[in-house]
Q: What sequence folds into this?
């Protein structure tokens, strides 16, 4: 998106505001499908948790995507957005049997990641096919908070528990129609991914009624100019060949599934903020903006880096700034970052703001959550209104004291 377009959106809809470029989302989706074009049956299930606005979900539905969901509410959002139940996979962690049963009643694909629930569900619903999430004990991901396939992770059924798993399947006479893994996010080394895939292939041999193998996702996107990213084209070439070989040996064609989230929406997102104050201290120049970690928590939670540009003064001389928020906590977005000279009321654009940004926003400090705008076919569409004071009070109950 061009800077003038972003400036106009900030003027029209106010700041802070999230903006999503539909064309970039479409490009990333097609890039991934092209990388695995050698696979006869490919299914991409967009990870709803990355960005769950219903208009964005409708965009993915128009592309032919499925959905990866982790809560019954995300399942309901997917159905509301027009997805058919069989296009949705439900992969929760640590939820009650009741929630899984509710999802199953809606007709979506169930994915179970612990032996206790597997046995309970299989005993009560042996005719409902389920997928099993395996923990391959592979450490992958850019941060411990987003590395989910290692031995100490709460996610998945350990590969060392396969004998127990098979005993449950035999005793309940349930059908396992899919095998799944997810090692973590921001994967750089595709050889690690391929190594984990071999573990999944080896596990899959134990089940005779598979319809699909789900390899998760976690593909890294670049966060700045020159940054490294997952080479999905190379991964597509190598994994496709290995998958086709496995299907031939398995005796029937299976579906290769992925559940990308960040890869599809991260680079499509921009977070526009206005500079309230430029504050000089004895050692630092702060650019204090009209937002905080209540709207964008990833830099504080994960140490993630978002490129920040001054779109109000793109040709100004570069100076060093620490970009901070207005929350009554330390909320530093960027420390001692080189940015074109900043003045009060300038608009700063945070890049890579499409994934896990608005979806993790809150009302901390009783601040309103921002608006969301979708840029589609050269037009800006408001897809979520900025909250108001009435929204803050909504569901609160005043009592007489």
A:
């Amino acid at each position: 998106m061009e800077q003038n377009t972003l400036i106009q959106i900030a003027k029209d809809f106010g700041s802070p505001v999230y903006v999503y470029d539909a064309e970039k989302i479409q490009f990333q989706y097609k890039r991934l499908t092209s990388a695995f074009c050698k696979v006869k049956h490919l299914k991409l299930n967009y990870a709803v948790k990355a960005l769950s606005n219903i208009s964005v979900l409708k965009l993915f539905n128009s592309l032919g995507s499925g959905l990866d969901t982790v809560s019954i509410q995300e399942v309901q959002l997917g159905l509301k957005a027009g997805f058919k139940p069989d296009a949705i996979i439900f992969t929760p962690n640590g939820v009650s049997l009741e929630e899984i049963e509710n999802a199953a009643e809606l007709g979506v694909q169930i994915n179970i990641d612990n032996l206790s629930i597997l046995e309970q569900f299989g005993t009560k619903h042996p005719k409902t096919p389920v997928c099993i999430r395996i923990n391959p004990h592979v450490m992958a991901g850019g941060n411990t908070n987003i590395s989910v396939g290692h031995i100490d992770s709460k996610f998945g059924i350990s590969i060392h528990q396969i004998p127990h798993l098979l005993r449950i399947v035999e005793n309940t006479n349930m059908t396992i129609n899919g095998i799944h893994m997810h090692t973590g996010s921001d994967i750089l080394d595709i050889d690690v991914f391929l190594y984990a895939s071999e573990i999944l292939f080896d596990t899959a041999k134990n089940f005779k009624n598979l319809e699909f193998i789900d390899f998760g996702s976690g593909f890294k996107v670049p966060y700045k100019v020159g940054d490294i990213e997952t080479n999905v084209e190379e991964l597509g070439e190598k994994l496709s060949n290995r998958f086709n070989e496995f299907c031939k040996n398995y005796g029937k064609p299976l579906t290769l599934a992925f559940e990308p989230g960040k890869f599809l929406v991260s680079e499509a997102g921009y977070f526009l903020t206005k500079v309230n104050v430029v504050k000089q201290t004895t050692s630092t120049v702060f650019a204090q903006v009209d937002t905080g970690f209540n709207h964008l928590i990833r830099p504080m939670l994960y140490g993630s880096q978002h490129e920040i540009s001054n779109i109000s003064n793109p040709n100004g001389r570069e100076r060093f700034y620490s970009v901070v928020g207005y929350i009554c906590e330390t909320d530093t977005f960027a420390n001692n970052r080189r940015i074109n000279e900043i003045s009060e009321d300038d608009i700063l654009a945070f890049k890579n703001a499409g994934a896990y940004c608005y979806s993790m926003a809150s009302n901390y400090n009783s601040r309103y959550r921002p608006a969301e705008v979708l840029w589609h076919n050269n037009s800006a569409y408001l897809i979520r209104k900025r909250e108001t004071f009435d929204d803050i009070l909504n569901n609160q109950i005043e009592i007489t004291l």
Remarks:
- Confidence is low (pLDDT under 50) at residues 140-150.
- The two ends are 53 Å apart (CA to CA).
- Residues 232-250 form the longest helix (19 residues).
